[in-house]
Structure of WLM-domain-containing protein:
Amino acid sequence: MSIDFKVAYKGTTYALGQWPLSATIDDVKDWLETETSILKQGQKLLWKGKVLTNDATLESIGIIPDAKIMLMGSPQQQIDAVHSMDRTLQQRAKVTAAFARHPKKRTAAGSSRSLQDVRYTFHQITVLPEFQGQDKARKLLERLRDDRGIQGIMQHYKWSVGELAELSPFEHAILGYNRNAGERIALRLRTDDLSGFRHYDTIRKVLLHELTHNVWGDHDENFHKLNRQLNKDVITMDVTFGGRTLQAVGPHFEPEEEEETGLASGSHRLGGQGTIPISIAERRERAVQAAMYRLTKQEEQEMDEGCGS
């Protein structure tokens, strides 16, 4: 018996036509390598949320006619470009043990930082010198490092990342990567046309995605469960309503022009005046719900596909 099915990859659907049910996933990967230029060893095929093993047959996975299998992976030239940039960044700046042994005792604002603040953080910031706006790029990475919610997550999970670096904007298909479970995390900061920088919230979501790779390597259900939790945590650990902070986790970056959150400190009553006060717990819950609405399935898939880890 034979069956027809499709493979979807980054918005493109490949129709494979009729295949015998005895064909293996390894056979499918051979075909896809020719069509997509993604090496077989770099491919991951997902069906019903599970990563398919090479020795599984189409019959054993229970595939149905006209089914769509998801392909994850990057063409070899993109992988080579990331590795090249990685080597360049490594040559420019190395994380030294001396930094951890002799941390700065005070922040730029002059306030004391605890040993925990210094230990569980990003120990080095690196930007690309060949592009304009280096100061803005560095300021953006420092804002991520000093983000109250990110700080809380780093301290809670006891994560220490050697370097937070800017990724080349020419790698359009790659949003970020995590090397060696936290040795270096690189993020794409600039827009495709190089006219500006990507939105802060979007970059922070990619950072949370890459931090999840400190624990889980594959983009499976365990990975997504933790990633969704981090997107909740980053809000509950850093939400300010009407100037009242729900949970303080040490010093944080205060930009000159902070983006509006769109959330007010109370609930407005139609036809009335003033606001109805709400509790801190209710504010936190609203913030969590807002965060989860913003982290959509489409965003998860885009970050999975744009991940170079």
The mean pLDDT is 75. Residues 130 and 196 are 15 Å apart (CA to CA). The two ends are 38 Å apart (CA to CA). The longest strand covers residues 12-20.
